[in-house]
Design brief:
Distance between the termini: 62 Å
Radius of gyration: 25 Å
Helix content: 25-40%
Shape: globular
Structural class: alpha+beta
Number of strands: 21
Oligomer: single chain
CATH superfamily of the largest domain: tricorn interacting facor f3 domain
Number of domains: 3
CATH architecture of the largest domain: Sandwich
CATH topology of the largest domain: Immunoglobulin-like
Strand content: 15-25%
Bound molecules: ligand BES, zinc ion
Number of helices: 18
C-alpha cells in the first residue's frame, strides 16, 4: 500500500518534471478514428525527423523516423500505425535507450498497430525500419515506365491510409504534424517532397526538407527520379522529367493566375510556394494535393490546357483539406465536396461561366449515374459516411465530390455570393490548421449562415439521407446539349465538330445511341482518330462506348497500349468494366497481366478485384 502511494507520488513528480513540454499545438479530436490504431488523444506524435535512403535495386526505403512526442497525461504507451514495415529497433530519448515495443497482427486493410512502452519523460522515439518492395504507398517505376527511359522513378501516395506503409506514424487526419526529412537518392536524381523543395539536383543525391506548418500524415509525400524544374510564376513552377518539362510548363502556365483567383475568394495562400510535379503514367490518380507540391498524372498534359481544372481542384485543397482537414474518412466530403465547389469558383474566375457550367453539367450526370449504380436508397449516397471496418477508399466517388459540391452551390444560392463567400472565408480562417467533422461544420453553418439570414434549408436531408435532394442545382450547358443532339443524329450525319473542346467530345461519345452500328463507329474513328486520341479522357470514353456496341476486336491493339501505358484508375476501370461486361474477360485478363507491373497498388487492386 505504502509502496503504491510512493510510486504514484514518484510518477506524478516525474510528470510534473516533464511539464515544461509545451502544450499541444492543435489538440487532436477525442473521438477515435475508425481507420487508425493510434490514439493521439492519449499520447501524440507531433514532429517527425525522417531519414531515409532510397534503394531502387531492392525497392526499399531504409533509415529511421524520429518522432517528438507529447504525453501530457503520462500514458504508458504510444500507438503508431504501420503496414508491412520491417521494424529493426526503437530507441527512446536523445541518448537512444532501447525501447520495448510490440507489433500487432496484420489487418489486410489497416495494417499493424505498433505499441511502444513509454517512460514518463520520454520525448523522442527513434524507429529504425525498412519498407518492403510491395509497400502500398510506393510507386516504383522501372526506367521503361518513365518518360526519359533512363533512370527509375519513385513516388509515394499517402491518402487515404497508405502513409503507414512507408512511415510508422499516427495515420489519422485528426492529428497534425510538422516534419523535416533527409533523403538520400542515387547520384544524378532529384528528390522532392510536400515541403520546401530544391530546384536543382544536388551533387551527392542528398536532400533536406522542412515542412514547418502542421499537416496530416496522409499529406507527407516524396518523389525521386530524373526531375527538373521550370518556374512559371513568382511563386509557382513545374517539376517534370526533362522530356516532359517544356510541355508541362506550357500546360500549366496559368497556375499563378489560379492562385491569385483562389486568394481573392477565400483568403491568402499560406503555404509559400505552389508547385506541381508531373509524374510518370503509373501514378494512379489524376492529382494529389500534397502541400506546396501537387502530384499530377501526365495525362493532363494534353497540349491544349483542356484539363487544367485539375490544377484548380488540387490548389483548392490548399484551403479545403490541407488547411481545414476532415477529422476522419467518414467526413471525406468535407475535403472533396468543398474542393469541387471551390475548384468551380476558381475556374469561373479564370475561364468564365460557360466553360465552368459545361464541366459542372458533366459532373452532375456523373453524380446521377453514381447514385443509380449505388442505389437511390444506399447509405453510401449519404454525404456523412460510416466506413467503420471498411477501406476508406470505398468512400471515394461522386457522392463526396459532386453531391458535396452541389450541396455548397445550393447553400450559396440561398443568399448571394457576397454573404456566402464571407461565410466560407471565415470558416477557413477560423478553423485553419485544424481537423473538423461534418457535425462541427453543420453547427457553424447554422449559427453563422442559416440563422443569421433566417434560412430554412434541408441540410440534414443532404447530409444524412440518400439520393439527390430535389433542391439540387442542375447545371445547364448549351454546348453539351448541342453535342448530345449530334450524337442522337449520328445515323444520319457525322457531327460538325468545329471548336469542340474535349469535354464536348466526351459527352458526344458517351451519348452515341446503343444501336449505333460498327460501320458508323469505324467512320467516326477514321475521320476523328478517336481510338488514338492524345486526350485520355476522350480515349477512355470512346473505348467504353465502343466496346458494348461490338467494336472491340478491331481497336483491341490501341486499347491494349492505352491500358498498358496509362495507370490512372479513373481511366482503367471503365474500360476493363466494359470488356468484362461484353464477355471479353479473357482479353481483359491478358492485358492486365501484362500491364499490372506498371500499375500502382491502388489501381492494381481495383482492377484485380473487378476481374476476379
Ligand atoms: N485527394 C484526391 C485524390 C485521392 C482521394 C486520393 C482519395 C486517395 C484517396 C484528389 O484531390 C482528387 O480528387 N483527384 C482527382 C482529380 C480531381 C480533378 C477530381 C483524381 O485523381 O481523379
Ligand atoms: Zn480532391
Amino acid at each position: 500500500m505504502k509502496f503504491h502511494h510512493l510510486a504514484i507520488l514518484f510518477v506524478s513528480l516525474l510528470l510534473a518534471a516533464c511539464q515544461q513540454q509545451k502544450p499541444a499545438a492543435s489538440a487532436p479530436s477525442a473521438a477515435p478514428d475508425p481507420h487508425s490504431f493510434s490514439r493521439p488523444d492519449l499520447a501524440r506524435a507531433q514532429h517527425l525527423d525522417l531519414n531515409l535512403l532510397i534503394d531502387f535495386d531492392t525497392k526499399t526505403l531504409s533509415g529511421y523516423a524520429r518522432w517528438t512526442i507529447e504525453n501530457p497525461a503520462g500514458a504508458s504507451e504510444i500507438i503508431f500505425d504501420t503496414d508491412n514495415l520491417d521494424i529493426q529497433k526503437i530507441t527512446m530519448g536523445k541518448d537512444e535507450k532501447p525501447a520495448k515495443f510490440s507489433l500487432g497482427a496484420r489487418d489486410s486493410i489497416f495494417g499493424s498497430a505498433l505499441r511502444i512502452q513509454l517512460e514518463p519523460c520520454a520525448d523522442v522515439l527513434t524507429i529504425y525500419y525498412a519498407t518492403r518492395p510491395d509497400a502500398a504507398a510506393l510507386g516504383w517505376m522501372e526506367p521503361s515506365m518513365t518518360a526519359g527511359k533512363k533512370l527509375p522513378f519513385l513516388f509515394t501516395q499517402g491518402q487515404a491510409i497508405l502513409t503507414r506503409s512507408w512511415i510508422p506514424c499516427q495515420d489519422t487526419p485528426g492529428n497534425r504534424i510538422t516534419y523535416n526529412a533527409e533523403i538520400q537518392t542515387p547520384v544524378g536524381m532529384m528528390a522532392v517532397m510536400s515541403a520546401e523543395n530544391p530546384q536543382q539536383k544536388s551533387p551527392d543525391g542528398k536532400y533536406q526538407f522542412r515542412m514547418e506548418q502542421p499537416v496530416a500524415t496522409y499529406l507527407i509525400a516524396l518523389a525521386a527520379g530524373d526531375i527538373a524544374f521550370k518556374s512559371v510564376g513568382p511563386r509557382t513552377g513545374v517539376y517534370a522529367e526533362p522530356p516532359m518539362l517544356e510541355k508541362s510548363a506550357w500546360e500549366f502556365a496559368e497556375m499563378e493566375k489560379m492562385v491569385e483567383a483562389a486568394e481573392a475568394l477565400y483568403g491568402s495562400y499560406v503555404w509559400g510556394r505552389y508547385d506541381l510535379i508531373v509524374l510518370p503514367t503509373g501514378f494512379p490518380f489524376g492529382g494529389m494535393e500534397n502541400p506546396r507540391l501537387t502530384f499530377a498524372t501526365p495525362t493532363v498534359v494534353t497540349g491544349d490546357r483542356s484539363l487544367v481544372s485539375l490544377v484548380a481542384h488540387e490548389l483548392a485543397h490548399s484551403w479545403s483539406g490541407n488547411l481545414v482537414t476532415n477529422s476522419n474518412w467518414n467526413d471525406f466530403w468535407l475535403n472533396e465536396g468543398f474542393t469541387v465547389y471551390f475548384e468551380r469558383r476558381i475556374m469561373e474566375a479564370v475561364y468564365g461561366k460557360d466553360y465552368t457550367e459545361m464541366l459542372a453539367q458533366l459532373e452532375y450526370w456523373e453524380l446521377e449515374e453514381e447514385v443509380m449504380l449505388l442505389g437511390e436508397d444506399s447509405p453510401d449516397t449519404h454525404l456523412k459516411l460510416d466506413l467503420t471496418g471498411r477501406n476508406p477508399d470505398d468512400g471515394v466517388g461522386d457522392i463526396a465530390y459532386q453531391k458535396g459540391g452541389f450541396f455548397l452551390t445550393m447553400l450559396e444560392r440561398q443568399t448571394d455570393r457576397a454573404k456566402w463567400d464571407a461565410f466560407l472565408k471565415s470558416w477557413f480562417d477560423e478553423h485553419k490548421f485544424t481537423s473538423q467533422s461534418t457535425e462541427s461544420f453543420l453547427s457553424y453553418l447554422k449559427t453563422n449562415y442559416l440563422e443569421k439570414y433566417n434560412l430554412k434549408v434541408n441540410t440534414d436531408e443532404w447530409v444524412y439521407a440518400p439520393g439527390i435532394p430535389a433542391n439540387c442545382p442542375r447545371p445547364n450547358s448549351v454546348k453539351l446539349a448541342a453535342a448530345e443532339k449530334a450524337a442522337a443524329d449520328i445515323a444520319r450525319q457525322l457531327p460538325d465538330t468545329k471548336n469542340w473542346t474535349p469535354h464536348e467530345w466526351v459527352h458526344f461519345v458517351r451519348n452515341l445511341p446503343a444501336a449505333t452500328d460498327v460501320a458508323t463507329l469505324k467512320k467516326l474513328d477514321a475521320q476523328f482518330g478517336l481510338s488514338s486520341s492524345a486526350n485520355a479522357e476522350i480515349r477512355c470514353a470512346w473505348y467504353a462506348s465502343a466496346i458494348p456496341k461490338g467494336y472491340a476486336a478491331e481497336i483491341m491493339p490501341g486499347m491494349e497500349s492505352f491500358l498498358t501505358e496509362v495507370g490512372r484508375r479513373r481511366f482503367l476501370m471503365p474500360v476493363y468494366t466494359e470488356l468484362k461486361k461484353a464477355g471479353l474477360s479473357d482479353d481483359a485478363r491478358r492485358i492486365f497481366q501484362k500491364a499490372a507491373p506498371g500499375y500502382h497498388a491502388v489501381s492494381r487492386n481495383s482492377v484485380e478485384a473487378l476481374l476476379k
